[in-house]
Amino acid sequence: MFTACELGVFDLLLESEEPLSSAAIVQRVGSSADGMERLLSACVGMKLLEAELKNDEAFYRNTELSSLYLTKSSPKSLHHMMIYYSQTLYLCWHFLTDAVREGKNQFKRAFGVSSKNIFEDLYRSEEEMIKFMHLMNSVWTLCSRDVIKLFDLSPFTTVCDLGGCSGALAKECISIYPESMVTIYDLPKVVQTAKKHFISTDEHRISFQEGDFFEDSIPEADLYILARILHDWTEKKCLQLLEKVYKACKPGGAVLLVEVLLNEDKSGPLSSQLYSLNMLVQTEGRERTPAEYCKLLTAVGFKEIQVRTTGKIYDVILGRK
Ligand SMILES: C[S@@+](CC[C@H](N)C(=O)[O-])C[C@H]1O[C@@H](n2cnc3c(N)ncnc32)[C@H](O)[C@@H]1O
Known about the structure:
Blueprint: H1 2-6, H2 9-15, E1 20-21, H3 22-29, H4 33-45, E2 49-54, E3 57-62, H5 64-69, H6 79-93, H7 96-102, H8 107-111, H9 118-122, H10 126-149, E4 158-162, H11 168-176, E5 181-186, H12 188-198, E6 206-210, E7 221-227, H13 235-248, E8 249-259, H14 270-282, H15 290-300, E9 303-308, E10 315-320
Parallel strand pairs: 4-5, 4-7, 5-6, 7-8
Antiparallel strand pairs: 1-3, 2-3, 8-10, 9-10
This protein binds S-adenosylmethionine.
């Protein structure tokens, strides 16, 4: 699937008016004939392509699934996610055994980098940072509305999206809540790239603040969104960040955590268990149970904590000040 995405097979078949033979795909993609034939056949096995035989020759077309999720131009495209998984994550997963033995991420083995800050490793080049931002943006094409609508956030007019990255949730927030004003807070180079590639600076209800949320001050707000932030960090760092959020939060305000949740007994869901291993190979963090997040929130003072599930990959926890 990753290779077919990287080679643009699904894009080519989407653009083509008719099903294409392996030879035609080889010619357009510039691959070996034998390699492509085997790849196409495996994609048929995975139900990503359909093959039709004409005079003993197979002609390929996308399935609905691959057209919807694996082509670049689809509004629900996960193409960027596939590219990141293929070129970056897959390499970290290759060292899962070492990660389990050592209990730490595998950037050193996979990419030869190992700084004190995981985001320096993740953003080891501008190209890698942009790829990461596209990865972050990708999944929200499927479920940003679910997470932002699950609680009524209309009472919170000033919102700070901490580690807001590409701004996908900020955009969803202002589209659902007409009164809301969102500040995207992120590392300076991420904010600059978000402005350049992801968000129109004409959008007057979205503003930006550059900073390091561990080192620098964060803006005062009614609501802090922390989407996929705490799962990057150890308990100690989560508490450090949440304490800062609690102090900056206006009275009556709240924090909204958006995370993959494990069952309380950690018996599942399988996707969350695998995501937790994914956090092991590339971060300092882990996926957690609702009770573990509640404990972190109550430890810094948040109360009336509510957990709501979307039925999709990300769920939501709201804690009030
Ligand atoms: C896993 S991403 C989540 C992005 C976004 N919230 C989302 O769900 O799409 C973590 C984000 O935190 C930002 N980040 C990491 N360390 C940070 C720091 N010390 N200060 C500010 N932002 C930071 C990263 O640049 C990145 O945008």
